[in-house]
Amino acid sequence: MIQADSAELFLGFEELLGRNDLKLALQELVKQELNLTLLFIGEKGLGKYSLARALSEILLCSNQQTDTKTKLPLACHVCDSCRYLRAKTHPDFKELRATEANKQLSMEQIRDFIDTETHMLPVLGHRRVFIIDMDAISKAGQNLLLKTIESGASSNFYILLSSNQNSVLATIRSRSLLYLLPHLTQTDLAELWAKLPADLTQRKSKAEMIEFAGGNAGFLCQLLADSEFLLAYKDLSALFQRLFQLDLAGLLTEAYQELTNYKDKQQLAYLEQIWLFLFYRKCQTDKLYITAFQAWEKCIRRLQANGSFELQIQAFLIAFSKVL
């Protein structure tokens, strides 16, 4: 049974839902025994981190198995390397990620990570694997990382994660194999639903929740686990749809007034996440809204930097009106 908060739940490669073509392509890479830089792109909740950890287990496994159907490598899950990785004590597996309390890594943290981790030789096997959250790294920090990717130890294998490929330096993208994580199908989410605890799914409409989730497993789990988040989603998705019918005056009065209900810290976190998700989904069907998506990302960055809520929301609504 899968827990709703599955961020720290370790799933083996063969346990991951859907995306069979992507998983086969990654297993083929492992088979080539090359040390590369991969860049996984996808919105929050799509499973970039889970996929990266599962791939890392195969890369570091000292007793790789062969899938009987595809003849491609899988982790054994029982060797010392696999056990160390799952216990978060593997000396050749390192992560550079932000926390909820500190969503942006400082230059000092990035330099320290590069200096202490990326120049070491492997301890247990023939490679070291790094998972790096690019959303938490500024452009200046990415430039430091670029030099490491270019001149670091040849035994290093980097897996970079980002919710937006345009926020990653073009020079890093050009040195990476880029993989866009597709959304899961409704069948995949129905399979996930069946594995969730009954106390989460009871008295909830399976069809409605899966429709709300839009192919995003993490989003589905959050909708089920947090009743306030679910209420915020229903309200904010309705407001989001109305944005496209309002003129500038309506945006700065009606929409702005409703958004002021999300000014406190927790509600603002809901607003940021839900509208990022809705804009991301909108852009999948109409590329014209990429500019609006970018305007919302800019608004979020400024709000997270303690910018004035009133000024940033108004600036976003004005920018949004120019897209309509």
UniProtKB/TrEMBL annotation:
<protein>
    <recommendedName>
        <fullName>DNA polymerase III, delta' subunit</fullName>
    </recommendedName>
</protein>
<dbReference type="InterPro" id="IPR027417">
    <property type="entry name" value="P-loop_NTPase"/>
</dbReference>
<dbReference type="GO" id="GO:0006261">
    <property type="term" value="P:DNA-templated DNA replication"/>
</dbReference>
<dbReference type="Pfam" id="PF13177">
    <property type="entry name" value="DNA_pol3_delta2"/>
</dbReference>
<dbReference type="InterPro" id="IPR050238">
    <property type="entry name" value="DNA_Rep/Repair_Clamp_Loader"/>
</dbReference>
